[in-house]
Amino acid sequence: MRILVTNDDGINAPGLKVLEAIAAEVAGPDGEVWVVAPAFEQSGVGHCISYSRPMMVAELGPRRFAAEGSPADCVLAGIGDILPEPPDLVLSGVNRGNNAAENALYSGTIGGAMEAALQGLPAIALSQFIGPENYALDNLFEAAAAHGADTVRTLIERAPWQETADYRLFYNVNFPPVPASAVRGMRAGAQGWREDTFFGTEPTTSPSGRRFIWIKGGPQHKPTAPGTDAALNLDGYISVTPMRADLTAHDALSELERALA
User: Fold this and answer.
1) CA–CA–CA angle 35, 93, 100 (5° rounding)
2) What are the GO cellular component annotations (predicted)?
3) Beta strand 123-128 with 170-175: parallel, antiparallel or unpaired?
4) Which domain CATH number covers 214?
5) Does 95 count as an annotated binding residue?
6) How do residues 30-53 score in pLDDT, each as one tens digit?
7) Domain count, the chain
8) Would the annotation count 99 as a binding residue?
9) 43 marked ligand binding residue
């Protein structure tokens, strides 16, 4: 199996090393793992692509490349230029922090997996929820490292992929904020909604007197509705959410048609 790996935390991120190990285990001794990751951190860029400017790509070692672009750019570069053949699977992550609930809308990790799906390839985004129970561990990514390969293999072998769909499925995986031994299993769940949690702004003034604004997130440990992604994670489960790039609110179409008639 040939696997393309990317992330949004950057080529030197510890979570990428975890994902490379997961990919190597899944690919097997006769497989290939190719890494094309951003040269610098690209957290929060979503599905951004750099179509208005070129990007430099540097080869750092065998099957290892850094690109001055977003995760989606890295996937495009890997598929269109770097890899000799299209990959059998694209993995994006392991992100430092959860990409559950509203975070999924901003995530560059998910953006990389989404681009792979738009290119007709099976793709999985993987993220590690962080909390009081795992923050002080020697390996912050312990749950992802221990359960990542089995999770990916399970999805490859058992999950629906809908290869012929116009907007094919990809999967968003979040590992719970607990030690590996405390993970309770894997559950399917919808993208949740955290009440009163949203991105905001915090203005500041530099020593030179210039005004800047920081973008800041809200509390991450508020549970979402029972059975949805963040709620499952806070209960100790690996959450798996099927996603697709179709943004149509299909449940509102009939009502809209009646309103416009």
Assistant:
1) 160
2) cytoplasm
3) parallel
4) 3.40.1210.10
5) yes
6) 999 999 999 999 999 999 999 999
7) 1
8) no
9) yes
